[in-house]
Design a protein that fits this description.
Layout: H1 26-30, H2 50-61, E1 76-79, E2 88-93, E3 98-104, E4 109-115, E5 120-122
Antiparallel strand pairs: 1-2, 1-5, 2-3, 3-4
């Protein structure tokens, strides 16, 4: 018997469900089984722009989108691939490629390096160990 590979599709944002509803339907949405909260303040929800939702939808259809750790400018990050694997620095730009500033405390100098978004993770995660 030949085995076939299993294709497993996971949600892009686990535990999130996106809904379009009227403000008056807030109580009804919160009453649905499994719904714990609606993102927003106590008074109102925080809608995602329609442009962002449509871009995500199109990216999923084209299989050109995948989850990535949330990174913010000013956050400490770790490079996880390439010649600088394991080096940590501060994220200073997010356009196009990411720009990370690496600080060499011993000589009180810094360098900036451009890296792909896929090659950076938040520094508070446990780094992958390289087997020798």
């Amino acid at each position: 018997k030949k085995s076939r590979p299993v294709v497993l599709e996971l949600p892009l944002f686990p535990t999130y469900v996106f809904v379009r509803s009227a403000r008056q339907a807030r109580v009804a949405v919160l009453g649905m089984p499994g719904v714990l909260s609606i993102l927003g303040s106590a008074r109102e929800s925080w809608p995602l722009p329609a442009l962002e939702i449509e871009a995500i939808r199109l990216g999923l259809q084209m299989r050109k989108i995948e989850p990535h750790p949330y990174l913010t400018v000013g956050e400490r990050v770790r490079i996880k691939a390439g010649v600088m694997t394991g080096v940590e620095g501060i994220l200073v730009r997010k356009k196009n490629d990411l720009r990370v500033v690496l600080t060499l405390d011993a000589i009180m100098r810094s360098v900036a390096v451009e890296v792909d978004a896929d090659d950076v993770e938040p520094a508070d995660t446990i780094p992958a160990r390289i087997a020798c």
